[in-house]
């Protein structure tokens, strides 16, 4: 019999005799090949996790090094991934931590970070993978994926904020429509004076929300910065890594590290994986997607907003006039189309960029009519 397995059995017997209860350990694998810091760095993270978390059994996949941890040996990272998938599907491990892994379209990862302003945790949705080919659809799904992970971590009503990036206002509208249909999403408020669900960089640093929604490329950049800002960038030392791949019908708990992730992040990623197993991530995700399908979220996502660009290509600009009023809340992806929409109604307008994002500038006398037209166009 395997010595590690025998030790685990004896420990469980001791627990039962001491506490009168059976405590099954969560079994988390970690692939050891492919790190820019070498195999020993990942093994060090695995051993650190095993030392710190007595309810977790850590197993290695790849090279064993000098470790006493159980190892399923493989010679390449691709071999590690094949073995990892086999072990997950056979339920020989409950979750796995790896790097440089390609998820199918529709699956993206929710990172878990410690923010520098107040030392609070925040989930960043998402950090790798692609939830959808369309930007807005992907970010709406990212919000759902972040909600799922937060609930699996025990946050009953996670607060959701949308980072102020291209598409944020469109994402806000779709999420509000989902909420009107019955999806229980709780919006955060920015710590800045003007508030709102659209978050600034200040909100990210201070963790103003439980789940920060963004596009994956921006999320990937942010997780790298917040993980390595104390080390000069080549060694990620803070946080829990890039998180689990989430998507409808996806049934494996696979956690992602960067090849720049150091031992502390590897250890935290193992804890993150164990937390999600104990929080029944798969069941939480299944229930969430069932609810969304009942309220027709796919129909809502498939309805492409009809931007007026094609109809307004030849619109003539009205005679210029002084513009002193600003209308905010317009997405940058729709900005020029909304300006032309106002032109088509005889209202002179200019696009601009304020401190909170894109704005449309109009005269004071046109403000009320312009706001009415824009609100109607964006419904």
Automatic annotation (TrEMBL):
Pfam families: FA_synthesis (PF02504). One of its GO terms (molecular function) is acyltransferase activity, transferring groups other than amino-acyl groups. InterPro entries: FA_synthesis, Gly_reductase_pC_asu. One of its GO terms (biological process) is fatty acid biosynthetic process. SUPFAM superfamilies: Isocitrate/Isopropylmalate dehydrogenase-like. The active site is at residue 355. This is Fatty acid/phospholipid synthesis protein PlsX.
């Amino acid at each position: 019999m395997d010595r590690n397995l025998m030790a685990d059995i004896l420990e469980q017997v001791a627990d039962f005799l001491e506490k009168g209860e059976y405590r099954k350990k969560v079994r988390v694998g970690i692939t050891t090949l492919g790190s820019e810091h070498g195999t020993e760095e990942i093994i060090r993270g695995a051993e650190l996790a095993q030392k710190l978390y007595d309810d977790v059994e850590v197993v290695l996949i790849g090279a064993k090094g000098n470790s006493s941890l159980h190892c399923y040996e493989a010679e390449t990272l691709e071999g590690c991934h094949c073995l990892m998938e086999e072990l997950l599907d056979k339920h020989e491990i409950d979750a796995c931590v790896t790097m440089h892994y390609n998820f199918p379209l529709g699956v993206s990862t929710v990172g878990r970070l410690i923010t520098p302003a107040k030392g609070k945790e925040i989930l960043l949705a998402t950090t790798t993978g692609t939830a959808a080919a369309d930007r807005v659809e992907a970010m709406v799904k990212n919000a759902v994926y972040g909600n799922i992970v937060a609930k699996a971590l025990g946050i009953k009503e996670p607060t959701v904020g949308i980072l102020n990036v291209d598409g944020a206002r469109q994402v806000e509208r779709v999420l509000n429509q989902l909420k009107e249909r019955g999806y229980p999403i709780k919006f955060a408020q920015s710590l800045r004076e003007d508030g709102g669900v659209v978050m600034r960089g200040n909100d990210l640093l201070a963790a103003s929300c439980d789940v920060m929604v963004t596009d994956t490329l921006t999320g990937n950049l942010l997780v790298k910065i917040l993980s390595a800002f104390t080390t000069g960038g080549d060694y990620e030392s803070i946080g829990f890594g890039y998180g689990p791949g989430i998507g409808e019908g996806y049934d494996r708990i696979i956690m992602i590290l960067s090849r720049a992730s150091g031992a502390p992040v590897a250890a935290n990623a193992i804890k993150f994986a164990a937390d999600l197993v104990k929080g029944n991530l798969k069941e939480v995700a299944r229930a969430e997607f069932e609810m969304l399908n009942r309220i027709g979220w796919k129909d809502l996502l498939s309805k492409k907003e009809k931007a007026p660009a094609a109809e307004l290509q030849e619109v003539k600009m009205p005679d210029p006039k002084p513009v002193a009023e600003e209308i905010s809340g317009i997405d940058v992806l729709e900005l020029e189309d909304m300006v032309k929409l106002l032109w088509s109604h005889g209202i002179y307008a200019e696009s601009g960029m304020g401190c909170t994002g894109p704005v449309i500038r109009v005269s004071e006398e046109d403000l009320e009519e312009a706001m009415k037209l824009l609100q109607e166009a964006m419904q």
